[in-house]
Amino acid sequence: MNNMRMLAEEEENDDGTEVTWEDQQRINTFSKLNTRLRSIEERLEELKQEKEALDDLSTELELTDEDESVLYKIGESFLHLPQPRAMKRLEKDQAAISAQVLDLSAGAEQCEKEMKELKVTLYARFGRAINLDE
Predict the structure, then answer these.
(1) Is the pLDDT of residue 5 over 70?
(2) pLDDT at residue 31 greater than cutoff 90
(3) How far is the C-alpha of 46 from the C-alpha of 42, rounded, in Å?
(4) Is the model's pLDDT at 52 over the cut of 80?
(5) Choosing a second label site near 61 at 20 to 30 A (CA), which of 14, 46, 121, 130?
(6) Are 3 and 88 in contact, with CB atoms under 8 Å apart?
């Protein structure tokens, strides 16, 4: 009975792996990448909503007569633009959002790749003693 108790204490001590400076740097890097990834995901969600709004606007503008003037939001202001000019502006805005989405998606993939590599290293070193999942 006493041997089992000692074994349990030894198992607990196995989780007490010393954290080296390099380990701490890896943990800090993982944390920074995780924060950056969350920020990118939030921005991607905002852009997705902006893209949906622009897609809806595109449908509305296509139904508008070419000789009509339409209100178009540029920055924080709304301007009256001729329908053809508004369509060109809309296409430019849609392309800009698509480019931002591509850049951010690539950034998110890079964060995830680096985080995966760090997870492998840190879990191999610390096992159950560290939790890198949300």
Answers:
(1) no
(2) yes
(3) 6
(4) yes
(5) 46
(6) no
Judge whether 83 and 62 are in contact, CB under 8 Å.
no
DSSP string, 36-92: HHHHHHHHHHHHHHHHHHHHHHHHHHHTS-TTSEEEEEETTEEEEEEHHHHHHHHHH
Q: Residue 134 — pLDDT band, cuts 50, 70, 90?
A: confident
CA distance 66 to 88: 12
Instruction: Return the number of other C-beta atoms located less than 10 Å from residue 112's C-beta.
Output: 14
| CA dihedral over 85, 89, 94, 98, signed as positive or negative | positive
Which tokens hold the place of 77?
């202001």
Q: Is 9 helix (H, G, I), strand (E, B) or coil?
A: helix
pLDDT over threshold 80, residue 4: no
